Amino acid sequence: MKISRLCISDFRNIRNLQLVPHEQVNIFFGANAQGKTNLVEAVWLLTGAKSFRRVRSEKELVRFGACASRIEAEFFAQGRQQEIRLELGEKKTAWLNDIKQEAPSALAGSFSAVVFSPSHLSLVSAGPSMRRRFLDSCLCQISPKFLKTLSDYSRALTQRNALLKDVRYSAQLLDTLDVWDQSLAGLAALIIKMRVKLVEQLQEEAGKVYSGIANGHEGIQLSYQSSLGVPYTQEDFPGFCGQLYEKMKYHLSEDVKYGVTTLGAHRDDLLIQIEGRDSRSFASQGQSRSIVLSLKLAESEILTRASGSRPVVLLDDVMSELDASRREYLLNHIQDSQVFITCCEKAYFEGLKNGIIKEMAAGELL
Fold it and tell me: For the whole model, what pTM was predicted?
């Protein structure tokens, strides 16, 4: 997957940016707050996903004083040239090859990318929700079916939680909970099934990358942690669904007590260990950065395997914390992809042969 033309208008501090990217490495350097991350964020939004930055409202993405933002790209994927357009204003609207999409999320799978930014370092240290989001974001790009399953699960969970709160005042509502328990258990089983398979793939790919970054001195281990405590059984999926349902019924009294569904796919976690030790407690800053980079590059390999096309790799301010050997390893590992890299110092890439280096200031490319 390669972007051949990129146009961004009225997006954050970018008034009007036009770029013909290099098919391999694209470096954007400059001082802080000049728009480098905004450029990378704009490309990421073309995947149909939400921003990787904290955004309270879509209006924050529109340049001050403008009515709407527009992001357009021509890209090559699935053996043909394609066009994608995203407009942000009162609402977000997307087009793919001049066909208006039902929702921006419908772009998932058409244009794929992998992004790393400093905010992703919390993937290691933060709570389980961040790691679940990482797994689900990857799966949504691989399978639009997963996105629908996740959405259905969220709706069923909201309905069940609402009923749990009402049960305190109307005990007869307990009889209606069983319908939601069965629905939630079935959807949770599908989500867990796909997450477990993804974690197995991540272990294979991320393990190799991490070992390379760490010069073979240590390794990482990944495992899926189910809050329901039921191991996924590939050979007997109906039986697995039944076990999840029974677990939910067993915890019903606790759920009623707290007014929420205390166990389920929405409470699961990805356990990341370094040589058998939980990274949340023991990983250093350097190890955390290496873990996240490994996971992101592993995600790129998995997306490539699933779609037959390498996703665009977006690396926001990643090189400054890496020594020369790790920078070299990283660049060599992503040489088959189109890459967008932001940094403050262009000196890291002065020997670049296959790519372009552009300075950015006040939202413009110089």
Answer: 0.86
